[in-house]
Design brief:
This protein is mainly α. 68% of the residues lie in helices and 2% in strands. A hairpin with a 3-residue loop joins strand 1 and strand 2.
Length: 211
Protein backbone atom coordinates (compact mmCIF):
# COMPACT_ATOMS: atom_id res chain seq x y z
CA UNK A 1 0.00 0.00 0.00
CA UNK A 2 1.39 3.34 -1.00
CA UNK A 3 1.68 6.06 1.63
CA UNK A 4 -1.19 8.48 1.76
CA UNK A 5 -0.21 11.70 0.04
CA UNK A 6 -0.77 15.16 1.43
CA UNK A 7 -3.06 17.47 -0.53
CA UNK A 8 -0.10 19.69 -1.41
CA UNK A 9 1.78 16.74 -2.90
CA UNK A 10 -1.30 15.62 -4.82
CA UNK A 11 -1.85 19.13 -6.17
CA UNK A 12 1.75 19.58 -7.26
CA UNK A 13 1.83 16.17 -8.96
CA UNK A 14 -1.36 17.00 -10.83
CA UNK A 15 -0.04 20.33 -12.07
CA UNK A 16 3.15 18.68 -13.33
CA UNK A 17 1.15 15.97 -15.11
CA UNK A 18 -1.27 18.44 -16.66
CA UNK A 19 1.50 20.82 -17.69
CA UNK A 20 3.29 17.97 -19.45
CA UNK A 21 0.10 17.23 -21.37
CA UNK A 22 -0.26 20.93 -22.16
CA UNK A 23 2.90 20.66 -24.24
CA UNK A 24 0.87 18.64 -26.73
CA UNK A 25 -2.15 19.83 -28.65
CA UNK A 26 -4.76 18.40 -26.29
CA UNK A 27 -7.89 20.35 -27.23
CA UNK A 28 -11.65 20.31 -26.94
CA UNK A 29 -13.25 20.35 -30.40
CA UNK A 30 -9.88 21.50 -31.69
CA UNK A 31 -10.48 24.98 -30.28
CA UNK A 32 -9.12 25.20 -26.75
CA UNK A 33 -6.31 23.55 -24.83
CA UNK A 34 -8.00 21.42 -22.20
CA UNK A 35 -4.84 20.91 -20.14
CA UNK A 36 -4.46 24.64 -19.59
CA UNK A 37 -8.09 24.86 -18.52
CA UNK A 38 -7.59 22.12 -15.92
CA UNK A 39 -4.60 24.00 -14.49
CA UNK A 40 -6.73 27.14 -14.25
CA UNK A 41 -9.58 25.29 -12.52
CA UNK A 42 -7.23 23.69 -10.01
CA UNK A 43 -5.50 26.99 -9.24
CA UNK A 44 -8.69 29.02 -8.88
CA UNK A 45 -10.45 26.46 -6.71
CA UNK A 46 -7.56 24.90 -4.82
CA UNK A 47 -8.62 26.05 -1.35
CA UNK A 48 -12.22 24.87 -1.77
CA UNK A 49 -11.12 21.52 -3.23
CA UNK A 50 -8.62 21.08 -0.40
CA UNK A 51 -11.30 21.66 2.24
CA UNK A 52 -13.72 19.25 0.56
CA UNK A 53 -10.99 16.64 0.02
CA UNK A 54 -9.98 16.84 3.69
CA UNK A 55 -13.61 16.43 4.76
CA UNK A 56 -14.16 13.39 2.50
CA UNK A 57 -10.80 11.88 3.52
CA UNK A 58 -11.62 12.05 7.24
CA UNK A 59 -15.20 10.92 6.65
CA UNK A 60 -13.96 7.75 4.91
CA UNK A 61 -11.65 7.02 7.84
CA UNK A 62 -14.31 7.77 10.44
CA UNK A 63 -17.12 5.75 8.85
CA UNK A 64 -15.42 2.90 7.01
CA UNK A 65 -12.04 2.24 8.66
CA UNK A 66 -11.29 0.64 12.01
CA UNK A 67 -9.12 3.58 13.06
CA UNK A 68 -9.08 7.24 12.02
CA UNK A 69 -5.29 7.15 12.36
CA UNK A 70 -4.97 4.84 9.36
CA UNK A 71 -3.89 5.91 5.89
CA UNK A 72 -6.04 5.74 2.79
CA UNK A 73 -4.76 3.53 -0.02
CA UNK A 74 -4.27 5.09 -3.44
CA UNK A 75 -7.73 4.09 -4.68
CA UNK A 76 -9.58 5.73 -1.78
CA UNK A 77 -7.24 8.73 -1.92
CA UNK A 78 -7.91 9.23 -5.64
CA UNK A 79 -11.64 8.66 -5.11
CA UNK A 80 -11.74 11.32 -2.38
CA UNK A 81 -10.01 13.83 -4.67
CA UNK A 82 -12.34 13.02 -7.58
CA UNK A 83 -15.39 13.55 -5.35
CA UNK A 84 -13.98 16.85 -4.06
CA UNK A 85 -13.34 18.00 -7.64
CA UNK A 86 -16.84 17.03 -8.75
CA UNK A 87 -18.39 18.80 -5.78
CA UNK A 88 -16.52 22.09 -6.18
CA UNK A 89 -15.94 22.53 -9.91
CA UNK A 90 -18.78 23.71 -12.12
CA UNK A 91 -18.73 22.91 -15.81
CA UNK A 92 -18.19 26.19 -17.72
CA UNK A 93 -21.12 27.06 -19.95
CA UNK A 94 -19.49 27.59 -23.30
CA UNK A 95 -21.77 26.75 -26.17
CA UNK A 96 -20.40 24.08 -28.48
CA UNK A 97 -17.14 23.74 -26.56
CA UNK A 98 -17.92 21.66 -23.48
CA UNK A 99 -19.99 18.54 -23.18
CA UNK A 100 -22.41 17.67 -20.42
CA UNK A 101 -19.95 15.24 -18.84
CA UNK A 102 -16.77 17.27 -19.29
CA UNK A 103 -16.36 17.78 -15.54
CA UNK A 104 -16.74 14.05 -14.92
CA UNK A 105 -14.19 13.16 -17.62
CA UNK A 106 -11.75 15.62 -16.04
CA UNK A 107 -12.38 13.96 -12.67
CA UNK A 108 -11.59 10.55 -14.18
CA UNK A 109 -8.37 11.89 -15.69
CA UNK A 110 -7.37 13.46 -12.37
CA UNK A 111 -8.18 10.33 -10.36
CA UNK A 112 -6.19 8.08 -12.66
CA UNK A 113 -3.28 10.56 -12.67
CA UNK A 114 -3.15 10.47 -8.86
CA UNK A 115 -3.28 6.68 -8.89
CA UNK A 116 -0.47 6.44 -11.46
CA UNK A 117 1.73 8.81 -9.45
CA UNK A 118 1.25 6.70 -6.33
CA UNK A 119 2.00 3.52 -8.29
CA UNK A 120 5.25 5.13 -9.46
CA UNK A 121 6.09 5.99 -5.86
CA UNK A 122 5.45 2.41 -4.79
CA UNK A 123 7.89 1.18 -7.44
CA UNK A 124 10.53 3.76 -6.45
CA UNK A 125 10.12 2.78 -2.80
CA UNK A 126 10.73 -0.90 -3.62
CA UNK A 127 13.75 -0.01 -5.78
CA UNK A 128 15.23 2.01 -2.90
CA UNK A 129 14.73 -0.91 -0.52
CA UNK A 130 16.45 -3.21 -3.02
CA UNK A 131 19.42 -0.86 -3.34
CA UNK A 132 19.64 -0.65 0.46
CA UNK A 133 19.82 -4.43 0.67
CA UNK A 134 16.36 -4.89 2.17
CA UNK A 135 14.15 -7.86 1.25
CA UNK A 136 11.57 -7.07 -1.43
CA UNK A 137 8.71 -9.23 -2.71
CA UNK A 138 10.13 -10.13 -6.14
CA UNK A 139 6.77 -10.99 -7.71
CA UNK A 140 5.16 -7.79 -6.42
CA UNK A 141 8.11 -5.73 -7.69
CA UNK A 142 8.00 -7.34 -11.13
CA UNK A 143 4.23 -6.84 -11.42
CA UNK A 144 4.50 -3.20 -10.41
CA UNK A 145 7.39 -2.57 -12.82
CA UNK A 146 5.54 -4.26 -15.70
CA UNK A 147 2.40 -2.22 -15.04
CA UNK A 148 4.28 1.10 -15.01
CA UNK A 149 6.17 0.12 -18.18
CA UNK A 150 2.89 -0.82 -19.87
CA UNK A 151 1.30 2.45 -18.75
CA UNK A 152 4.18 4.50 -20.19
CA UNK A 153 4.10 2.47 -23.40
CA UNK A 154 0.49 3.58 -23.81
CA UNK A 155 1.38 7.28 -23.65
CA UNK A 156 0.91 7.31 -19.87
CA UNK A 157 -2.78 6.53 -20.15
CA UNK A 158 -4.71 3.72 -18.53
CA UNK A 159 -6.37 1.32 -20.94
CA UNK A 160 -10.10 0.86 -20.36
CA UNK A 161 -11.95 -2.43 -20.91
CA UNK A 162 -13.83 -2.94 -24.15
CA UNK A 163 -17.60 -2.65 -23.87
CA UNK A 164 -19.70 -5.73 -24.60
CA UNK A 165 -23.26 -4.57 -25.35
CA UNK A 166 -22.88 -0.87 -25.98
CA UNK A 167 -21.57 1.50 -28.62
CA UNK A 168 -20.25 4.08 -26.15
CA UNK A 169 -16.62 3.69 -24.99
CA UNK A 170 -16.10 2.58 -21.40
CA UNK A 171 -14.86 5.97 -20.19
CA UNK A 172 -17.93 7.72 -21.62
CA UNK A 173 -20.22 5.36 -19.73
CA UNK A 174 -18.19 5.88 -16.57
CA UNK A 175 -18.45 9.67 -16.94
CA UNK A 176 -22.24 9.36 -17.37
CA UNK A 177 -22.41 7.24 -14.24
CA UNK A 178 -20.51 9.89 -12.26
CA UNK A 179 -22.71 12.65 -13.72
CA UNK A 180 -25.99 11.07 -12.64
CA UNK A 181 -24.60 9.72 -9.36
CA UNK A 182 -23.66 13.24 -8.31
CA UNK A 183 -26.88 14.72 -9.67
CA UNK A 184 -28.86 12.30 -7.48
CA UNK A 185 -26.46 12.67 -4.55
CA UNK A 186 -25.38 9.04 -4.79
CA UNK A 187 -21.60 9.32 -5.17
CA UNK A 188 -20.05 6.76 -2.82
CA UNK A 189 -16.34 6.84 -2.04
CA UNK A 190 -15.90 3.09 -1.59
CA UNK A 191 -17.68 2.26 -4.86
CA UNK A 192 -15.58 4.81 -6.74
CA UNK A 193 -12.40 3.48 -5.10
CA UNK A 194 -13.39 -0.02 -6.21
CA UNK A 195 -13.86 1.17 -9.81
CA UNK A 196 -10.37 2.67 -9.72
CA UNK A 197 -9.02 -0.59 -8.29
CA UNK A 198 -10.67 -2.56 -11.12
CA UNK A 199 -9.14 -0.26 -13.75
CA UNK A 200 -5.70 -0.74 -12.19
CA UNK A 201 -6.14 -4.54 -12.07
CA UNK A 202 -7.29 -4.56 -15.71
CA UNK A 203 -4.07 -2.78 -16.70
CA UNK A 204 -1.98 -5.08 -14.51
CA UNK A 205 -3.43 -8.08 -16.35
CA UNK A 206 -2.83 -6.46 -19.74
CA UNK A 207 0.75 -5.70 -18.73
CA UNK A 208 1.28 -9.27 -17.61
CA UNK A 209 0.51 -10.62 -21.08
CA UNK A 210 1.97 -7.71 -23.05
CA UNK A 211 5.55 -7.61 -21.73
Amino acid sequence: MAKEKSFDAIFQDLRITVQDIAKTNWTVDGKENLAELICDYLTQNREKIEEEYSYINHRIKRKYMSTCDGLLDRHKCAAAFMMAFLEIIETPHRQGLFYTTLKERLAIFIGLSIMATMMNEELLDMEKKKSDGALVDVDKYKECWNTIAYWKKNKEEFVFPNVICDTNPYHNNWALELHYAQKENRLFALSLANELFCIEMHNRLLAKYDL
